[in-house]
């Protein structure tokens, strides 16, 4: 593991990353989803795509990368751009970037030459009835200054977040990226799990319809389908990019 220090908005971020095939001439960057880290992306792809240099990144606040700010998705993209510039990539127009879930939104904002979306977030989906009730009740309690009580309605993974990461989560969780997907013009490969309950297959199909220069393949799997189908995904990418 290596570290690069990035400065943004008068804050310093220690960004942890790993390189695979460092001598390769082409580069692919892997961005993980919310609550995850670079290790799961390495688990999926480190033994594939041998003609590419792989850059696996812990985004701020995840894995071994620091974050003391409340961030937006656009700010994550800006920090990743600054990080890549430190590695010698002035722009992302020469890169292939793969993003899983939340990482797919960040990857899209970076506008790479080739974009790989793995069960990407960014399409607003109807929330289950229980979730809608919890949200309305939490908002009602907050009106009366009873914010501490609302913590009881948070999921266990949310409760484990620091306050700034929880505020960041609220910034990024329900974003509509429809216009951003529609505006992207690079080559796009969309891969999805057909039984994904975090980001539905219908969301993937909508993204496919929004991005003109895109191909989509789905697999019999959940939100982490790529761990099982990594070799097939890699072959499709090699045939599409190389």
UniProtKB/TrEMBL annotation:
Coiled coil residues, start to end: none
Keyword Transferase applies: no
Domain AB hydrolase-1 intervals: 27-110
InterPro entries found in the cross-reference section: AB_hydrolase_1, AB_hydrolase_fold, AB_hydrolase_sf
Hydrolase found in the keyword field: yes
GO molecular function, one term: hydrolase activity
Annotated Gene Ontology cellular component terms: membrane
Organism domain of life: Bacteria
UniProt entry keywords in alphabetical sequence: Hydrolase
Protein name: 2-hydroxy-6-oxohepta-2,4-dienoate hydrolase
Organism of provenance: Candidatus Marinarcus aquaticus
């Amino acid at each position: 593991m290596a570290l690069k220090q990035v400065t943004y908005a008068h804050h310093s971020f220690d960004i942890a990353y790993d390189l695979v095939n460092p001598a390769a001439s082409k580069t692919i960057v892997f961005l993980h989803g919310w609550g995850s880290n670079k290790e799961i992306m390495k688990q999926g792809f480190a033994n594939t795509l041998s003609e590419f240099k792989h850059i696996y990144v812990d985004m701020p606040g995840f894995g071994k990368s620091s974050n003391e700010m409340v961030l937006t998705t656009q700010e994550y993209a800006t920090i990743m751009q600054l990080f890549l510039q430190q590695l010698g990539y002035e722009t992302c127009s020469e890169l292939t970037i793969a993003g899983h879930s939340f990482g797919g939104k960040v990857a899209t904002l970076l506008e790479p030459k080739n974009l790989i979306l793995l069960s990407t977030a960014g399409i607003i989906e109807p929330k289950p009835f229980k979730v809608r009730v919890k949200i309305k009740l939490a908002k009602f309690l907050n009106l009366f200054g009873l914010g501490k009580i609302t913590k009881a309605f948070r999921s266990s993974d949310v409760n484990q977040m620091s306050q700034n990461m929880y505020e960041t989560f609220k910034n990024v969780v329900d974003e509509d990226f429809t216009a951003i997907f529609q505006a992207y013009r690079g080559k796009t490969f969309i891969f999805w799990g057909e039984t994904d309950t975090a980001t539905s297959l219908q969301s993937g199909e909508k993204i496919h319809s929004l991005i003109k220069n895109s191909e989509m393949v789905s697999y019999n799997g959940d939100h982490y389908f790529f761990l099982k189908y990594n070799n097939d995904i890699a072959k499709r990418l090699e045939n599409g990019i190389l």
